[in-house]
Amino acid sequence: VMSDAQRKTIYALSTPMGKAGVAVVRISGPDATQVWDNLVQTNKKRHLEPWKLQRCKIIHPGHQEVLDDGLAVFFKSPKSFTTEDVLELHIHSGRAIISSVLNALSALPYCRPAEPGEFTRRAFLGGRLDLTQVEGLKDMIDAETESQRRIALQAAGGASRAEFEHLRTEIIHCLAMVEALIDFGEGEDLEEGVFEQARAKASQLQEKIKAYLKDGRRGEIIRSGLRLAIFGPPNAGKSSLLNFLAQREAAIVTSLPGTTRDILELSLDIGGLPIIVADTAGLRATDDLVENIGIERARNMIHASDVALCVLSLDEIYDPTSSSFHIPTALKELVTLETCFLLNKSDLAAARLPDAQIQNVLGKNAWAASLKSGQGTHEFLNQFTETLKQRYDFSDVQGKNTPLITHSRHRVQLTSAAQFIDSFLQYPIEDIVLAAEELRYAAQAVGKISWTIDVEDVLDSVFRDFCIGK
Ligand code: GDP
Ligand code: ZN
Predict the structure, then answer these.
(1) Ligand nearest to the CA of 283
(2) Is the CB of 280 under 6 A from ligand 1?
(3) Can you tell me the distance from the alpha carbon of 383 to that of 366, in angstroms, rounded to the nearest whole number?
């Protein structure tokens, strides 16, 4: 239930302040029709037709001066973004015009300026959006790459909401079976083995939740960016690689404040993948990997990353006479099966070393290139990007593999739901009342992801239906 202060009609400029073709001023609340009466003048004597974009003049409610020539559209409650009456004024975008319209609105005693996010908040409170859609909407505005846009759209469009709701309904169904048992006891009213049925259903649901959780964090990674750690000995070409990535492939290059002062972080768009690159280049002072502090920092950085790329200088690690590779011991400690390698400075080698030969030794994600001459860099980047795409399945964001979990909040709740179901499954039938409680918590945990309606309300209604249906 909204308080009166919340219910007051709000207004805001929904587009950026400045010169552009169109600016949109949004008004939402019970008095949106009054705003139309006071500010909008159409040819048809101010006639208000919902959901129809109409040519109009915007006039000052006091002295009746024409402020702008524009368009107005009225969305009648509840079929609007906020579920309230909404009026949109499409005016020319210029500082003076926008200011004059906002001033006119501020002159209306029943209106007040909207707070940040207040339209979305009302949409949420009105039940128009659930929390995953609110997040999706925000993520959509923040999206900088294709894959981010896609997962945000999926959430904003309500697909995630539907999925979580479905899961919750199934848990509640399971609970309803158990509750029925508690009420009537096993016997004539209910078939035998209802508890066993509920348990079977619960373990199915648990499997389903576990499958959602086993997604390699793809959704969160796409949303917040894949964290790539570049490490290697001093002078191998780490900074050169970073420059190469930033100049060649980055649509967006933003400096982020590093986690520590010494680590440089860049946010890049590499082939549609949002990638946050951390470079130990910032470790220059202690770059010497023989020093423990350098190794320790690199280790921490690698640990906090999704992908690690080790840059080595080919001439330092490859001995052409014996055809053998020597990886510095300090680095070996940091290398895992997942580590990718770039053997830089291939221009210094007397003869070209085929990637196949390198991959025999270092695994399939190893390439030789020269960041100085450009030799092999194109192939490296293509194949490296392909490796990431395969690993994180970015290519299939639209397909049925679309990750459901895009925020750690979702993961936290699903994990605890799985734990509650696990507890439920531990109880013998004698403790059925306690067991039911676990299922109720599980449903509540999933409900917190969407947070649309009071969990108890739905629970009551479904339970009631179940009993009557029986
Ligand atoms: P970092 O210490 O690992 O960050 O290495 P830098 O990127 O700062 O490079 C160290 C030195 O190696 C610089 O003088 C670069 O110009 C040079 N360098 C980088 N890449 C190449 C390459 O492919 N070939 C050659 N010959 N020199 C390179
Ligand atoms: Zn460097």
Answers:
(1) 2
(2) no
(3) 9
Among 235, 279, 284, 289, which residue has the most ligand 1 atoms within 8 Å of its CB, making it the best to mutate?
235
447 membership: H or E segment, kind and range: helix 432-450
For residue 267, what pLDDT is reported? Answer: 79
Answer yes or no: is the C-beta of 243 below 6 A from any ligand 1 atom: no
Two tokens, residue 43: 């040819």
**Superfamily of segment(s) 146-215+405-469:** tRNA modification GTPase MnmE domain 2 (1.20.120.430)
Residues sharing a CB contact under 8 Å with residue 345, sequence separation 6 or more, in sequence order: 236, 237, 313, 314, 315, 370, 371, 372
Nearest atom, ligand 1, residue 241 CA: 7
The answer to whether the CB of 286 is under 6 A from ligand 1 is no
DSSP string, 410-434: HHHHHHHHHHHHHHHHH--GGGHHH
| Residue ranges of domains in the chain | 4-125, 146-215+405-469, 227-393
Token pair of 284, please?
Answer: 């220059």
The interface pTM score, or ipTM, of the predicted complex is 0.97
In short, whether 238's Cβ falls inside 6 Å of ligand 1 is yes
- The answer to whether residues 112 and 54 touch, using CB atoms and an 8 Å cutoff, is no
Token couple for 342: 């770039």
Please tell me the number of the ligand nearest to residue 311's CA.
1
Q: What is the DSSP letter of 28?
A: E
- Give the pLDDT confidence of 367-376 residue by residue, as tens digits: 999 999 999 9
What is 227-393's CATH number?
Answer: 3.40.50.300
Pick the residue whose CA is nearest to atom 25 on ligand 1. 345
Burial class (CB in 10 A: 0-12, 13-18, 19+), 468: exposed
Q: Which segments of the chain have a pLDDT < 50?
A: 1-2, 4, 249-262, 281-290, 397, 455-470
